[in-house]
Amino acid sequence: MDERDIVLNSVLEELKNKKLITELEKDIITTHMFPVAPKIPRYLESWVVNLVDDAVAIAEVGYSARNKVTYALNFILIFVFANLR
């Protein structure tokens, strides 16, 4: 457990003790990085947040990769057509 986990756990416990956060909300926050984080989600809502987070991350990576490939192909085409003469 690193320093960030210790701080997160202390903040979550403080919020829970003050009744500002429910057990469900705490579970969503602590498990939304599953399977990277070792804690398994206990509620359906936690699984939904986890799956949506994963889908968005995959879409963002795909969009970024597509842009890089498009840029590289455009660069190659410009280079090829410029040297055809």
Structural features, described:
- This protein has helices at 3-17, 23-31, 44-82.
- By secondary structure, the protein is mostly helical.
- The radius of gyration is 22 Å and the shape is elongated.
Q: Helical proportion?
A: over 70%
Mean pLDDT: 82
Unreliable segments (pLDDT under 50, ≥5 consecutive)?
none
Rounded to the nearest angstrom, the radius of gyration is 22 Å
What does the largest sheet look like? Answer: none
Number of strands: 0
Order of helices and strands: HHH
In short:
With 85 residues, the protein is mainly alpha-helical. 74% of the residues lie in helices and 0% in strands.
Summarize this structure as a short list of keywords or feature phrases.
85 residues; mainly alpha; 3 helices
Give the arrangement of secondary structure elements.
Elements: H1 3-17, H2 23-31, H3 44-82
Helix pairs in contact: 2-3
